[in-house]
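ugh ok so i messed up the first submission bc i forgot one of the chains. this is the corrected input, ALL of the components this time, i swear. 477 residues overall. if the numbers dont match what u have on ur side tell me asap before i send this to the collaborators (the ones from the other lab, u know who)
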Amino acid sequence: MKHVIKNILATLATLLLAAPAVAAEVNVAVAANFTAPMKQIAAAFEKESGHKVVLSYGASGKFYAQIKNGAPFQLFLSADDEKPAQLEKDALTVPGSRFTYAIGSLVLWSAKAGFVDPKGDVLGKGNFGKIALANPKLAPYGSAAIEVLTKRGIVTTLTPKMVQGENISQTFQFVSSGNAELGFVALSQVMKDGKISNGSAWIVPDVLHTPIRQDAVLLATGKDNAAARALLTYLKSETAKKIIRSYGYNI
Amino acid sequence: MFLEQSDLQAIWLTLRLASMVTGILLLLGTPIAWWLARSRSWFKGPIGAVVALPLVLPPSVLGFYMLLAMGPNGPVGWLTKAVGLGNLPFTFWGLVLGSVFYSFPFMVQPLQNAFEAVGDRPLEVAATLGASRLDAFFSIVLPLSRRGFFTASILTFAHTVGEFGVVLMIGGNIPGATRVASVQIYDHVEALEYASAHRMAAVMLVFSFLVLLALYAWRSDTQKRG
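and heres the new structure output, hopefully the right one now
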């Protein structure tokens, strides 16, 4: 009897110890704007590697606060490059793991067809009630929009017409519901399979604003997590990049 | 300065919004609560359920549907445009409308309970003495249910001050018009300006505590005197 129990315990121990080496699990904090491509990347990665990926979506600022207070994430895909850098300063990351996984493109978009001309001259005409943008203090897409308007010299004239979304998803809802006639949103929100499917848009040239870098970082908690390391490498692979580009990001 | 100018602006706006909503709901909620308390109509169940609905939906989801309803393609938006009010989202009055709907159960339910507690007897007596129904309401029911009014107003006011998801969605974060205190604190937190967030949260907390303390002290005082 003793022998049997010993055997069972030994088998259990082997199973428990072996399990992480075969298929580990990684918890990833993902910026809300990257939800759709990340789902696709995670599915492809799981199939290829056998690891399990658990995704949480949300605002990067909230994730920052959660990670600082011990949230169980091993990988963080931020909507900007500031928060991962800050976490690195806080010594909560694996040094040298930070990199840019996507560069966002800004687009001036309206749900109405023919409202936004391909050069964005509609901005100067001002024949609209509200223009939506993401909060420039919080969202890189918002500060990029302000840069564009500053270069055109129309920030002050447009300020009374501005409504701010807390993030780029809310900004998109303001415009798509018609509450704001037009707004600066992410190209990834209006682009599907390489083209803008509805409404009208001006894809803002990259030279008009500082690049909207989205950085990822391996957190200190994921230092020995095989799945986290593998996923980080996978994000840099050509397969992943192809998926990322198809959603309107540069990389 | 302990608080920034924009923080003070947000607090002032919040107080204006909460007072406005409480006032409107007192006028709107009282007849509905009265009807719910007295009616024996089969319609009472469905109306009571509709009043309680804002409790069920998550605020940001509720805000999203309000945005659609109040927008240029929504039924409420169509109505406000038809009567010349324009579109309500991103305006102070849009926030008032949204908050009135969102805080509805917090006004109606305590009032309904208070009215039900009054019972039939005082009204029957008043009727025998020749009081009209309106007269009976104002001279008997109102004084008898003043604690219900008190609770309902406090809950509505406090709930509006603490509201976040709905105002974030239909407000558009415009300084002086729709950027209320909760949104301002959220902005500070998201921008990693924790010190500013802590300061403002502390001010809100102390202020709310003092107001509630004063009101509850007043309430137990009136209770003692009957």
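quick check: The longest strand of chain A covers residues 25-31. that seems consistent at least. Chain A has a mean pLDDT of 89.
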